[in-house]
Batch of 4 targets.
Target 1
Amino acid sequence: MKPFAITDTPADADARKAIAPVICYPVEGLPRPDISDYRELRDDLDLIETLVVPPRDAASWTVPAGHFFRILCSEGPQVGDLNLFNANDLNERFYSGKTRALNGTHLGLGDQLFSNFPYLRPLATITHDTLDWYGFDEFGGSVHDVIGTRCDPYTHNLLSKGGQYHYCCHSNLTRAFAKATGKSLTEAEPFVHDVLNVFMCTGFTRDTGQYFMKASPVRIGDYLEFFAEIDLLGTLSACPGGDCSTEHSSDKVQCHPLVVEIYKPKRAPRGWAAPQPNGYDRTHTS
């Protein structure tokens, strides 16, 4: 949050502010899938697994490359924090910062979730979103953000002057990842990373630039659907904030489970092949 200015306004302040912005990462050259090829497969999918993520807790699943998975609102408004990993190399995981830089602050149909360095390739592609009608509201809020980090017990401890809360999304994800991989909690925690906030409605205040949340528009039956570009391990926390209309990291608000469904298509998209790791040679020299 920027404080009130304590320096004198320069004579050319208006001219400096009037300079037009430049997009940091022009994406015209970014390889993009033909989303229509992916969506053609959606009319004939076989449901092969269903997983329930309990409220204020997390669960993990695996999905093979070339399959679809959906995150569903099953019993009431609820947001979820999603981590994704390469199921065959856990060092490769979702990179929310670069995904944000290449797609925008909030994700939707056709956007891809990218992995961390040195891999930097698509992990998954969003193929359907029943909340795409929401767009951006009058407050600048939208759904499925990659700007928040995940609620965590460290920030909670800091802001609550010593409070101990063990069901923040960070802790939920840590427990679920540890269970899925056989790692101890201490070993598992460093793998937990910044998330895709599924169904969460967020933005930045226009006056102070502070991250805000508001009641999620998600309702029973809504879902966000992904196509797995590589073999994935997913971990999802049903946030202790419920629909995030009042607070998070709390046992007070109403929370609901989320459901994950995994689908097998009858065929692969035309010409599809799992993306290879990034082609940079990693010499870091001339």
Target 2
Amino acid sequence: MITTGLLYGLRYLHYKGLLKQTAGYYDKYNTAFLKKNDFNVLFLGSSRAEMHYDTKLFDSLTGLNSFNLSLAGANPQIAFAALKTYLQKSTAPKYLIYEVDYHYLKYKSDQIKEFNNYFPYLSEPELRAQFSKVDARIDHFYYNPYYSFPFTGLKNLSTSLHGWLNIPNQIDSLYYKGYFKESLRPSLVFKHVTPYQTFFNISDRAYLDSIIIICKQNKTQITLVSSPIFAGGKVDLKNKDQIISQLHNIAKRNNIPFYDLSSLTFCNNRKLFIDHYHLNYLGATKFTTYFCSLFNNKIATISLK
């Protein structure tokens, strides 16, 4: 009994240290899941969206107030969970930009990437309910410290200690309103790949529909976008044209725009990528500038600054 009480106490102190973070990815989670927000624009998707849409640059070029809600490894189901949890406390944005990772849609994950990072937020009923649909262990992580502690990891414990001591982590300064500035990893080098075919699995298709529906219910203007992929995806995908055509059809049926920006003119420049699917900060700057022009002129139809 005493051991159990101590374990609950230690877990409380651990989570408290994480929630004290005022920068980095825990500050992002604190903002997304615990705070009341009134952002005009949300970016939603996986690590590609997290690293491609520079919120600081976007705000300066549009005059709007944006936040990057994207989560590493997020398929449409995880993205839906993040959005639905965000909307429990925050005002619905006027615009939502959803990054469609068309190369990744055939995979249905039964695990949440870096799931231990979300442990302090499982007290939020909506997040816990949505994540439980992906990973059946979520309730056990929430209720049972004997179960959650072995999955915590030294990195997570170290981050909590940094929170208590108010000492920033190495990458904290690279986050700004949810955007992650990738300046640590080297540029892309040649890598042999075997081209493959992709398709929409049933679950991802259904959750994309759910994201569109929740936006319409909240009068949020949703835009589907596929951002740059090295060589425009042609190196990796055999059936890119087919999947892009399918996405155009989905957008048309829902009366929403879809922009395939995966093969812009600079997509052959290895210095702008860290791998075939992720831009570095130089690439993100180039892409965000391009996207802001499109946003101002076609999505929001406001004058360029």
Target 3
Amino acid sequence: MHTAPLPPASSGIRLDPDINICQTDLPLDWYQAEFKPYAEEYMRLPDRKPGTVLPWLDKYAGPALEHFGDSLLLVAHFYMGGEIVKLVERYGGAVSDSYQLALQAARNPHKKVIVESAVHFMAESIAILANPDQSVWITNPKAGCTMEMLAKDYMVEPVAEQLIERYGDDLTVIAYMNTGGRIKALAGRTGGAVCTSSNAPKVVEWARRQGKKILFVPDQHLGRNTAYKLGMDLSKVVALPDPQVARGAIKLSDKTIEGGLASLDRAEMILWGSYCGVHTVFSPAQVNYWRERGYTVLVHPESKLEVVQAADGSGSTNFLWEAVMKAAPGAKLAIGTEGHFVKNAREQGRQRGVEVVHLADIPDPAFHSMGCGCATMSRNDPPHLAGLLDLLRQGKAPAINRVYAGDVVDEQSGALDRKGDSERAVLVRHARAALQRMIDITEAK
């Protein structure tokens, strides 16, 4: 685990100095040419306090809202920094987990221009469910997800085809929301569904009732934790090799699979080998440290199984947020998830007399631990939001910031791979079917 230093002022970005960024495999200070003037203006602000940043953002959000009226919707994920969350709430937008964000276009048909401050796969999910007269935009198209980057279609689809050849219609794909539209379409083609961290047990149990062998993509830890929660035999839950090691499609064989092909044949669920670097820093020792000091420990299920087993509870970002909002005055919560989320939760808890700490932020130097912010989510900073709103108002927003189903943006180069209309229509049909199955399963009475 490494900590990225604060970039110099000339880099055009200012990260929150209170949040450690532990993923340093991708550059943070990247701006499209159209956005650089907004970054330079932001850098000239005297400080980063809400009383300074929010009026500056208002200068661009206000005219955009006046221009688009009620047809404009701002959305953000819980992991975004406080300034953007406050602005989205200030203008009647939605701040939630990935499940609720995916539904924003479909459930708000009067919103024609949707601006998302989160990662690309979340904006793409909104676009898959959107109506033809709605457009979805992302403030930074290079805001990816390290877990999703290790589960691109060129990695997953060749493995899925080998499994389909071996197991036929007995195999179905469950695609975690943290996947691109092409993987969601793969789930749809195999009769599978999308899931989130909040509804994964329901979706996996749905597939089990059909007697299906499940390929769970991409987070191995959420998959394993879901199996544990459902009481599945964990010896029949088999993880594929780490895609960082394979660096591409994996040839399934007795040499590449632990336990050989026979272990796949016995498996009830096969896990893609990806994971989230933010959530794998947690340990049972950290859980025990805070519990011994009277804290209730809650973690996100992208954490390792032994951490989930040690904690007092686990659940999605929405679950964790609700735990803070509903905690009684005097409660003490240690939360294991992304750093910006915990910072925002700590602020809310303080107003309610609830103490919130980050699970990994232990003052004892013997632990050598710290909480992490999501580096790729942090690419959606205030200059990107201000710039996109202003450029949309002027009719000058870059085409790459428009999000269509099936888009793949290279997180380093910014190169865009966009499907043609007919190919996209097929992809949308399958991906939407997988998302709709998730919705039906989740909201069934």
Target 4
Amino acid sequence: MKTLSMCVPPADAAARKAVKPTICYPTATLPRPDLPSYLALRENLRPVEALTVQPREAATWEIPAGHFCRIICTQGPQVGDLNLFNAHQLDERLYTGKTRALNGTHVGLGDQLFSNFPYLRPIATITHDSLDWYGFDEFGGAVHDVIGTRCDPYTHNLLSHGDQYHHCCHSNLTRALADKTGLPLRQAEAHVHDVLNVFMCTGFTKDTGQYFMKASPVRPGDYLEFFAEIDLLACMSACPGGDCSAEHSSDSAACYPMKVEVHAPQSLPEGWAPPAWNGYDRSHGRG
């Protein structure tokens, strides 16, 4: 947390702290989708699937390339922890670290979700966010983060001195993925990865830099929507923390079901095709 210091500051400490930051990954040259053409497709969508994610549980569903997926708040404020996979190859999955580096700590309209190495390509594009009015609040909080890892039974066990809790999002995702794929639990668990925290309101404290959460501003009827750039397998847990206003590994928080819808457009943007895997030759200097 960098709150303790044992070292004497150098004479030029103030000048060193005053150095202006540089954005690590300028994205002016990053290929971006033609967002208006995506948005135009939303005017004529046909629903093809709908399902409910029960509180403190997870569910899986498939989103064909070129389809839209909506994650919807239904009965009350509820956070969802979302994993995304290549539907044909589980080794390719959402890479929140690079998604964060290229978009920022929280994602919204027009942002792309990227897959892991060695594939590194956009696998989904956000096309609607009914919470885009929230922006960043006075605490530095915002919604839909790609910084939290998911609540898990290992950290819970560590912090609670041995408690065994089985409905953390990590366990929920593991069970759901095992049920979908037929993999043993421990093999399925190896594929569960850091999440997009749908509807969760988070940030970092300004004094200690600690990851914080606060009550989600989501209301029934709000939804986050994305366009599948490749065939996707999605897996989402309705977090046991509910709106994550106080705790996130609990049977006492008010939790609600979440709805998922998959919609097919009448057509696709002219010239659109699923993006290819990353073009790096993987020689790593030893070709």
